[in-house]
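In practice, a research group might receive sequence data for several interacting partners and want a quick structural hypothesis before committing to experiments. The following worked case mirrors that situation: the sequences arrive first, and a predicted assembly follows.
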Amino acid sequence: MKSKYSLNHHYSPQTPPINNNLNLYSVDEGFVKGNMFRSLYQGYPGFEPKLAAPTNLEQAMMHEVQKYTFAAHDLALYLDNNPDDEEAIRLFNDYRQKAQEAIANYESQFGPIQMSSSQLNVYPWGWFITSWPWEGIW
Amino acid sequence: MFIYSKRLIYPVNIRKRDLNLAKLIVTQYGGPYGELGAALRYLNQRYIMPDDRGKALLTDIGTEELGHVEMICAMLYQLTKGATIEELEAAGFTKHYAQHGLGLFPSDVYGNPFNVANIGSTGDPLVDLQENIAAEAKAQATYEHLMDLTDDPDVLEPLAFLRQREVVHLARFQELHDYYQSKFNSGNTVKSLA
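A structural hypothesis for the assembly, expressed as tokens:
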């Protein structure tokens, strides 16, 4: 990729302003960007994040798991610093619940991704059913 | 305690082997501004945070960093998997191969093993948070340099995701730092915040 240093405009990374109005991205957009908070987002000049569309059912169902757990986690970091924000607590719990559902859906289709999964009540030992994350999902 | 989830935070599906890139990305595994150092830094600092906000934020970001370590390792694994001796020689990967084969090893780009001396811990919550703000900025700069050095979208997407997480963490550490600073300025002490 072209270096930021070869761009014409001056690039100066700076601390994003802290803005406590939530103003969130959608769960889909926030996940692709790696940031749920519009006021905090800092793109890298010359690069537009766009996650490739899932090519199979497993990728698609894992995407649901990843995006809702990500959204809940990013809200949790905000709430650690801003524990009195009722709207954020409501949203966190909405994302948390959707993440739980997405994990249960994925596990019922492809096998356990958590040691607490009921999909482990099988013979032989069910922990090997799902592939290892570092092998990728193809 | 920690419980493993058998999934990545964000997808890593790299199709093209690239040993030269692996030699560079390894710094975000075991280098001075890497993810392993970040995870240890925050999980180690959290004990002396004065209140629930600090203990929670350092625990939750530290835990996320462990997931980033796994993403970086997945990238290194996929970039090197199945490499032939000819490819290793062409890419100057033979020193790594001699010591580690195609196994992963946390080091910086020069091959120096991961070093905990890179982890700040001062016992002062404000100073530790300032350390973390700087550490996130340095990690962000490193991700930008790595993005400059590849055109492979399979590699760029996870690098950009990890870079953006540094942006968010920096902002959260700054937010917490400024909150504590205002508390201390108005007469609170570490003890009175607990």
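Before designing any experiment, note the following. Residues 57-81 of chain A form the longest helix (25 residues). Residues 18-42+51-135 of chain A form one domain.
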